Please model this.
Amino acid sequence: MKTVLITGCSSGYGLETARHFHASGWTVVATMRRPATSVLPTDERVRLLQLDVTRPESIAAAVEAAGPLDALVNNAGIGVVGAFEATPMAHIRKVFETNTFGVMAMCQAVIPQFRARRSGVIVNVTSTVTLAPMPLAAAYTASKMAIEGFTGSLAHELAAFDIRAKLVEPGYAPTTRFAENTDIRVEDLIPEAYAAFAAPIFAGFAQPALVTRESDVAEVVWQAVNDVSGRLRFPAGADALALAGGLWQPK
Model:
């Protein structure tokens, strides 16, 4: 029986991905910063662990407790939407600590066991902001673009040890808690000078032409984990597929 460790399982993509892998017969190590409650199945194939990907000691403890792994899914992330000019550098650093350095640290923590066994797969979840320029998302885009380049390079060096590295690029999912995973309000990042520019953009968020469902991302993560073709990028969701194919551009 195979085992996957998934970060950021308290809600959204991570939670749905954990459910999908469990339903497909895998053992799931579901991690989150505050694992007090969970709507995951309660059986011997689900293990709930505390994990803060910005803390090295938390990563070390979780990876040790998880034991041998067949797959790592780096899903944990925080968002920031607003004018870059108004976004505090302290918050930008916080976004990078989770979205970029947290992913890198998790990879570094599991690669040794994968290399020793000459098997394993790492899936890093980024975003469709890496597929097309999006307004009011400069800092967030930078944090995810860094992981795109990192994963592409990592895939080459890990292939020498029969380890696969993949990217899953979800689109916009209005039902996820993307905006709640941060301690700064969107309205605080839209100065008056940007109000007229931002208004139609937020109107578009409220009524998107195409969206991504949480189940779309879970299914594509499953496909990426099981892919042996050498493919690197896996768009997830109707809008992601349209962007990847050059068929649609965000407003």
